[in-house]
Design a protein that fits this description.
It is elongated and about 65 Å long. The model has no long low-confidence stretch (mean pLDDT 81). It is built from 3 helices and no strands. By secondary structure, the chain is mostly helical.
Length: 76
């Protein structure tokens, strides 16, 4: 029982650290995408959107327990 509790706590800590690192990476990529998008020269809005802009989806709070398909489908 003690081994099970130790494993459960260590997995929980690992998942919280991973979610935190992913959040930091997501914010960094969003800032880079926003800077790149805003640095475009002035042009018609319809043409600007063809060059793309990323939107990063925030994971649900339950992703700490079960990340689901985010590793396969991505978050942007």
């Amino acid at each position: 029982m003690l081994l099970f509790i130790i494993l459960l706590v260590s997995i929980g800590i690992f998942n919280v650290l991973k979610v935190s690192a992913d959040h930091h990476d997501r914010l960094q990529h969003q800032e880079t995408a926003e800077t790149t998008f805003m640095a475009q020269p002035d042009r018609h809005p319809h043409r600007m959107v063809h060059y793309g802009h990323y939107a990063f989806r925030m994971p649900s709070p339950l992703a700490v327990i079960d990340p689901g398909l985010d590793a396969v489908t991505g978050q942007s």
